Amino acid sequence: MKYDSFKIVGTGGAGSRIVDAAAENSDFIPYAIDTDLHALSSLKCSETICIGSNRFSGIGTNGDMASAQMAADEDTEALARIISDASLLFIVFGLGGGAGSGIAVSLANAAHKASIPTVIFGLSPFSFEGVERDRRASKAIYAVQKTGAVYAICPNDELCGTESNPTIKFSEAMNIAGRKMAEGISMLRNIAMHPGYIRIDPAAIVSTVKKSSGQFFFGTASAYGADRANEAAQNLKKGLSAALPQTGAALIGICGGDDLRLSEIATVMAGITSAVSHGTEIKMGTVVSGKENTQITVSAMLFRSWKDSLGGIAECQEGGGTTIDAAARSAHAAQHMIPGRFNGTRSAVAGGEQLDIPTYIRRGIHIDSVR
């Protein structure tokens, strides 16, 4: 599998700006698709595609998601060119607008028809943007859910830290949000393309996405100083505190400079694994920048609904719930149930063990015969 078959696409104004920022000082070229020709002309690192010229004359859609989707559906050549040799597709866009949402849904539908696994990042509007933006965002989320892609909803308020720092300048807040999203969308490609001590095989990344479904959770955290590994892990856990106990599978990326130590990697992973259910499937990779860097950045994608290796769906519930290992053991035990009075009934399962089967059989305990 080729690394460059991971395609990163930004749709609309917000999505295009974010992928363009992600490509700065990198060796990949993302795609930026919009109806606004002027907005596309300001991008520096992306291959730009302007669609819907007949409908919108090179300007925005005025929040009309349906028209943007129809324009994208009509431009099948452009969409086909993007996904033609993709093994994994990332789409980034801002919720609440028109062009970004419509184009993202059209592209995700095209990828689904071509059996290309797709990961979508949607940025929800700021809290001050009003009811209409929220309504359009909700409509876009519903449309995204129907595409079959896995998706994350990233609130702008949380990315920008407006609650913890209410005096932050708007331009600074937007830069922070864009930078955090850029780090997240480039994480998986970087840990495959530019691995440090530990590499995740690209095929394993694709497999993880294929096995998951519905909404996933995304977070990123950075820290400096002597205790940077522990601080980054704790900050990440704080931002994902509600999602971690419900995680069925996780992709973790740890980025640092030449001074990144194995002990720091171990510290980060210990902090994360302590917060997830036992048996959660975790894939982790590192990226070393090639120069000394006082910062460590940890990014995570947490998948809740997961298809285990035996083909069953495990969805972790609040408070730990079913783990990956537990789901697999349950499915395996169900295939080897002892026939009798339990046939046709639902087995009692706890911790992945079939309670209808005697303990000594479940756990393989040998009992000497008593004479």
Q: Would you give an account of this structure?
A:
With 371 residues, the protein is of the alpha/beta class. It has a domain at 1-193: 3-Layer(aba) Sandwich (Rossmann fold), CATH 3.40.50. It contains 14 helices and 13 strands. It has helices at residues 12-22, 37-41, 53-56, 65-74, 76-83, 99-113, 131-145, 156-160, 170-193, 202-211, 228-239, 262-273, 324-335, 359-362, and strands at 6-11, 31-34, 47-50, 88-94, 118-124, 150-155, 212-224, 249-256, 281-288, 295-307, 313-315, 349-350, 353-354. The strands form 3 sheets. A 6-stranded parallel β-sheet has the order 3-2-1-4-5-6, sandwiched between helices. Strands 7, 8, 9, 10 and 11 form a 5-stranded mixed β-sheet that branches. Strand 4 (88-94), helix 6 (99-113) and strand 5 form a beta-alpha-beta unit. Helix 11 (228-239) runs parallel beside helix 12 (262-273). The longest helix has 24 residues, at 170-193. It is globular.
